[in-house]
Amino acid sequence: MSKTGSFAHGATKELLLSEVRVTETGCWLRERSISTKGYSRWEKKVSPWPYKWPAHRVYHEFFKGPIPEGFEPDHLCRVRHCVNPDHLELVTKKENILRGIGPAAENARKTHCPQGHAYAPANTYRSSRGERVCRTCKRARDRARELVRPKRNRKTKGLRVAQALVS
Ligand SMILES: [Zn+2]
Ligand SMILES: [Zn+2]
Asked: What is the distance in A from the centroid of ligand 2 to the CA of 123?
């Protein structure tokens, strides 16, 4: 690695990690060079990233690879200056705009599910419709379904046996 310019050939893992504060929820807070919108900016003249680029993009590219054309990183944790690549989800620009205005966006800004569980990354996933789903509630729903399932299963099984006898 060349020594021209302190980090001319890209930052190191050690450097990137030395600039974040890890919280209990796993957020990597990069508290320097925060923009008016609340994002941390890449204020170093370090290739290959442009000066003042959103820092979460830098961390994503460094740890997880490039962001494909047409996609934008969206914070699952809703903490804008968090740069933990695991807290970012790549969404299309259109999805991101949808999340910015209207009821969908309002919902996306909520930090807790209707039952009061935190939308922490480990407790959150996206439904096929792109909505955030609380895993704790999902587990509770699954358990509730589990309780009624045996009855239903017996019925359909009986039905299948009957059909098999007829055909
Ligand atoms: Zn985070
Ligand atoms: Zn919940």
From this structure: 8
